Amino acid sequence: MNRAVTGRLIFLVALLAASAVSCTFADDQEINPAELFNSFDSLDPSAGRGDDTAADDDGSGGEIADVIVLPPPKENPLSRVVVISTAEACSLSGEVTADGESGRLPSQPRNTPIGRYHVLRFVGLWPEGVFHYALHLAGEKERLVATGSFTTPSLPSWAPVLTVLIDESDHDIWLAGAFNTPGDNGGYFGLKRAIVVFDQQGRPRFFHETPPESGEPTPPNQGLRVLPSGEMAWSDTRAITAVNLAGRERRLFDLDLAMPLLQAGHHEFILNETADEALILTNRLGSGVKCDLRTPTDRAVGDGWAIIAPDGEIRHSWSVFDHQDLIPPDRMNQVICHLHFFGAGTYDFTHANSIVPLPDGRSVLLSLRNTMEIVKIDLETGEIVWRMGPGLDFAWEGAESLDDPWFHMQHDVKWLPGNFLLMFDNANCHYDGNCFHGNWSRALLVAVDEERRVVRPVWEHRVPFSQAMGNVEPLPNGSVLIFTGWQGYLYEVTPDHRVVFSCRWPFFNKSLNIRYFPALWEK
Predict the structure, then answer these.
(1) Would the pTM count as exceeding 0.90?
(2) Which CATH number describes the domain made up of 3-21+155-517?
(3) Alpha helix locations (H) across 317-377?
(4) How many CA atoms lie within 13 A of 34 on its CB side?
(5) Pick from 361, 372, 364, 358: which is nearest to 280 by CA?
(6) Topology of the domain covering 31-151
(7) pLDDT tens sequence across 133-177
(8) Can you give the residue ranges of every domain in the chain?
(9) Is 336 helix (H, G, I), strand (E, B) or coil?
(10) Strand 347-348 relative to strand 296-308: parallel, antiparallel, unpaired?
(11) CB-based contacts of 159: which residues, under 8 Å, 6+ apart?
(12) What percent of the chain has pLDDT over 90?
């Protein structure tokens, strides 16, 4: 692998470390206000004219000529667009409020460009709400030019729902996920899909349905990532797609790769700073063993990763099948193997679920669930530097009540500054070989001494057992978000183990991970 590829990975690390998210967008040039006013009578009946109840008539340019409130857009029905014409060129701003709700929701954009036609979008609304808008001259809130009200519709009956259990958090915690819910035939994954953002009260604040292309089977939505732009990006193993708060999609990466492939972009992906390169997980069929860990098969499912361009060009790739001298097939978990996760007659060898570029720009970490290990890989050579997990290259140092203190079936591995690893440890198979029931799962933080090859536990917080999925995310206020995945519980936990927020989704609302999303409503 050349130095240019190594250098690019540094940008991937920088993105992982970024915490600031801007929720603005400037793509309303698709709306032509002048044409809207000329064709108002042909609009959907749910559109309406605003109330010119506070027009500024002093000749300063803020006099309202007309206001149109557009119908709720299909792409995100929890938003409304207000289009305004003014007698003279000016810049406008606006906000909405709701009865019984403290605070306000600023318009997007905050200030319109100077002109006679203005488009203000309000995103972050909730279903079946009544909202009151106030429009004013930019920078002069006391100079009202128009006020009015609009409503939002209900969501489909299959839309994910959230129940809040504890709410003692000191900040607004909004949550985003890429959900899969059953369809008419009662299937589990992939029949109904949506990107949804919930607020601290459990109300949906963004809803974007992601149906498959016509006539095609529906793969499940995979892991979600909130981009610095405020867009939400996800994979469905066919493409990586991003959507903004207006509900407008853009296809970022094609995942139809020219390589032996079962799935591309599963579980997790990392984008570089300019979103013109992605680091993705891949898997394929290859040589291995059946569940007895002895009988050879060519239908083992092993993982790897690839760096790709938006058109699917592969710029670098790596596969576990090229390194079976160090990660042997019989390392596969014998109990989990019998699930035949990728279909009858397949054997789930590694089941990767995290790919982590390291700050040195020269290596990545790969989390392999079914062999219960985290592997460091040299980007230049593709060689395995070390393996971390039960019985491997590192020793566990520190008090621990378990006979086996190591992580088991881990998810969502993160490398933090100071040589720390944070992960969701599902803790399958800790007791009597039972991989489907347990006493607990946990968020686990460990310090890593690569020179001494020692791992030392620093912090953990245990939650009810979850046999699959899950993620952990540090929050801006110093707390930690813990999502239990399969069981659908989520917790905000302080460093001293106080649970200040918790909620849950019904069992049939599945999201591979849940991400923190900056609150849009200003209190």
Answers:
(1) no
(2) 2.120.10.30
(3) 334-337
(4) 4
(5) 364
(6) Immunoglobulin-like (2.60.40)
(7) 999 999 999 999 999 999 999 999 999 999 999 999 989 999 999
(8) 3-21+155-517, 31-151
(9) helix
(10) parallel
(11) 181, 194, 196, 204, 207
(12) 72
